[in-house]
Amino acid sequence: MTLYVVGLGYIGLPTALLAARDRRVVGVDIDTRKVETLNDGALPFEEPGLGDLFEETRDNFSARTSLPDTAPASEGGDTYLIATPTPLEEQTRVADLRHVRAAVEDVASVLRPGDTVVLESTVPPGTSARLVGPLLQESGLESDEFGYAYCPERAIPGNTLYEMTHNDRVVGTENPMSTDTVFDLYSFVEGEIRVTDPTTAEFVKLAENTHRDVNIAIANEFATLAEQYGIDGRRAIELANQHPRVDILNPGPGVGGHCLPIDPNFLTQQSTQARLIVAARDINDSMTSHSLGLVRGLVSEVTRPRITVLGVAYKGNVDDTRRTPAHRFCLLAENEGYDIRLHDPHAEEFSRPLSEFDQAVAGSDCLVILTDHDEYLTLDPDSLVSRMRHANIVDTRGLIDDSRWDESGFSVHVLGDGSRPSTDRPNRT
Ligand code: SAJ
Fold first, then answer.
1. How much is the pLDDT for 273?
2. How far apart are CA 131 and CA 117, in angstroms?
3. Which of 45, 214, 224, 245 has the fewest CB atoms found within 10 Å of its own CB?
């Protein structure tokens, strides 16, 4: 049996390599450069532990740009795991399933009796039943001649390999032939594998990410309310979380990444009932403008302020900039005439050029921490104060020891902290 993994992104590649520990895996991706990179022995992105796993499984893994159409039929059938991206179509805020559709059509064209198809991409509820099933039947096979399961991934970027191995999984299938294959495919999973129907599994995946998005939205709303009440919102959340049934997440400059800003839309796109989920999305999106407002408060008297964005990745300790709040922040800041310098110790690709740290802070009027990278925990205010034109900092993540920055002569705004004395005057060094 060969496992074909279609889509070698942040989920497909780690899954392929975990499976390659005990079987032959062929990765398929339409991105020729990515395929060449992998076949040359390099990884296309950063993820803790992935390099070692790649070394360990090199002999069992190869990559190519399309599925082989003349592969010999293998005993027990082949498995096709699809992990292609499902972007949000921006104008309509509807799921764009073209990559899933293309991958399913490719698989259908080579599908043989006894094979199994597993879809991992995040999709709106009903996609397996209404779109994938009928497309696979265009192979000419009856639905009982091949297996099908919807198995959403649940691993968090930055800890992908641990979570892929240890988290429980939900498997949606109504086809008895698939269950054994799926249990064998996910034999690297130490968590429970729970079986349900495909539409429920699709819904569960979206409910998980929507729950997190709504939880972050309430943290963000508490943060802006705390600013108005003149208290420290993070401290208030920390105290509230001591209650045994309260678990509020952390406020920040907005919610990025490929999952949380998108998945709630997949759940609500066909509904006229959703209210809370839509409001939560709006609140989280508004945090970027709120963050810029904190900067404005510090540099309002500076002509053409030069600001330094620290962190463009969508969250701490990853290099991923997909849908990062930093993108929206930069656009809004540029529209106000700000001169922006950007630094990130992990990210390499961003919509604007990145600078070395020293270059990014030189002559700056305000530092703005947008991403909670560990590297920013050890910033030294004493060494920065003389290199900037004005010693100002906005911390949207609650990362810094603000009293230390105060002592070094910085004017400090921490998102969600209304307890600090107002520092609306620019602080000339
Ligand atoms: N964020 C906050 N405050 C928090 C937590 C996160 O503002 O307290 C922000 C982050 O900075 C980031 C965004 O939210 O911009 C999303 O980051 P995340 O770490 O919450 O989630 P993702 O997108 O990296 O991964 C999520 C995970 N889903 C859940 O935890 C329910 C992961 O398990 C999923 O597999 C992944 O989405 C996915 O692929 O769907």
1. 87
2. 14
3. 245
End-to-end CA distance of the chain: give it in Å, rounded: 68
Query: What are the tens digits of pLDDT across the range 167-179?
Result: 999 999 988 888 9
Distance between CA 115 and CA 132 in Å, rounded? Answer: 15
State the maximum Cα–Cα separation within the chain, in Å, rounded to a whole number.
75
Average pLDDT over residues 6-18: 97
Would residue 137 be called left, alpha or beta, if left means φ above 0 and alpha means ψ between -120 and 50 degrees? alpha
- Return mean pLDDT, the chain: 95
Using only C-alpha atoms, the chain has a radius of gyration, in whole angstroms, of 24
Q: From the CB of 210, is ligand 1 less than 6 Å away?
A: no
Local structure of residue 417 (DSSP, 8 states):
B
Identified catalytic residue from 259, 315, 330, 366: 259
Ligand 1 atom nearest the C-alpha of 260 is: 23
Q: What is the mean pLDDT of the segment spanning 141-157?
A: 94
Output the pLDDT for position 73: 64
Give residue 322 CA to ligand 1 midpoint distance, Å.
12
Residue nearest to ligand 1 atom 28, measured at CA: 209
Task: Compute the average pLDDT of residues 58-79.
Answer: 85
Tell whether ligand 1 has an atom less than 6 A from the beta carbon of residue 290.
no
Can you tell me the distance from the alpha carbon of 22 to that of 113, in angstroms, rounded to the nearest whole number? Answer: 24
